[in-house]
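Dear V.,

Thank you for sending over the compound details. I've combined the ligand you provided, zinc ion, with the protein sequence from our construct and run the structure prediction for the complex. I'm sharing the raw inputs here so there's no ambiguity about protonation or stereochemistry in the SMILES, which I know was a concern on your side last time.
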Amino acid sequence: MIEKSINKQAAVPESSIYLCAPINALVEGIYEENITFAEIKKHGDFGLGTFNDLDGEMVMLDGNVYQITSDGKVVAIGDDVLTPFACVTFYKPLSHDEITSEMNYDDFIAFINSLLPSPNIFYAIRIDGWFSHVKARSVPKQENYRPLAEATKEQSIFRFSDVEGTVAGFFTPEFVPSVSVPGFHLHFLSSDRNHGGHVLECRPRNVRIGVQFISKLELSLPMSLDYLTEDFKRDVKQDLDKAEK
Ligand SMILES: [Zn+2]
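Below is the predicted structure of the protein with zinc ion bound, written out as structure tokens.
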């Protein structure tokens, strides 16, 4: 009995990342896929994404979905709301680390990188605590078919100082840029649920970092006419860098 439970604890729990569509569909301006959050929640309780018509940034924490609109408002979202792109997992961190003094963004990213044993698997990352500074953005509602790199030119940028909250997101291997944003993709939500967005920079001061190793990818391919008839020959890596960094 005892041996069994030790073995169980020693093993890395198997977990998968779920995407309801590949990111290249979003990059090409396919902003309507009509996938409900009820469906997304079957695949995870933690993650990020956007909403139909690219209407703001999405962050999911503990099974709750929040929308950060381009005017900076945070709205709690119901299960019937629709999304063209969401990336989620059931959050089960394997390790926890702490940062107890202020760190600039480059050092912070280097520190998180040092927690990841290999760049060739996915990770879910959740950072809770105090930040001296968070620079985040959100995007205004768009017409379908306007490429993401164009749409994000109109992004609103928010700067929060001395803020408590959660940075949540994923690390994606470099070799799947058509599926998900390579490297770190992080969204922010303040503890008071009043602020948030897609993280452009942050300076953590006193935070706890949870990391989950993910060795399985589950990708849904939309069956919409827009998706089925799109030509995905274009290399979207440059657009993705422009839109997401
Ligand atoms: Zn984002």
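A first observation: DSSP finds seven helices and 14 strands in the chain.

Warm regards,
I. M.
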